[in-house]
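Ops channel
N.P.: pipeline sanity check, posting one input/output pair.
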């Protein structure tokens, strides 16, 4: 797999933001899971979401 491997839709349906417990939106352009409520974008590496707040990128809301 590569860093830009698509995320399994079933996995996305059960994942929630570790900070807010709210929904995540998959951003294919950046290969990240975005929590709009928390203002964080979690990277996906080799098809595996990295759900650690310390690894997330801050986004402007």
């Amino acid at each position: 797999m590569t860093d830009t491997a698509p995320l399994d839709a079933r996995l996305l349906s059960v994942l929630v933001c570790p900070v807010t417990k709210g929904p995540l939106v998959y951003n294919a352009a950046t290969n990240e899971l975005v929590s709009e409520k928390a203002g964080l974008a979690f990277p996906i590496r080799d098809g595996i979401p990295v759900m650690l707040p310390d690894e997330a990128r801050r986004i402007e809301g």
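N.P.: looks fine end to end. The mean pLDDT is 89.
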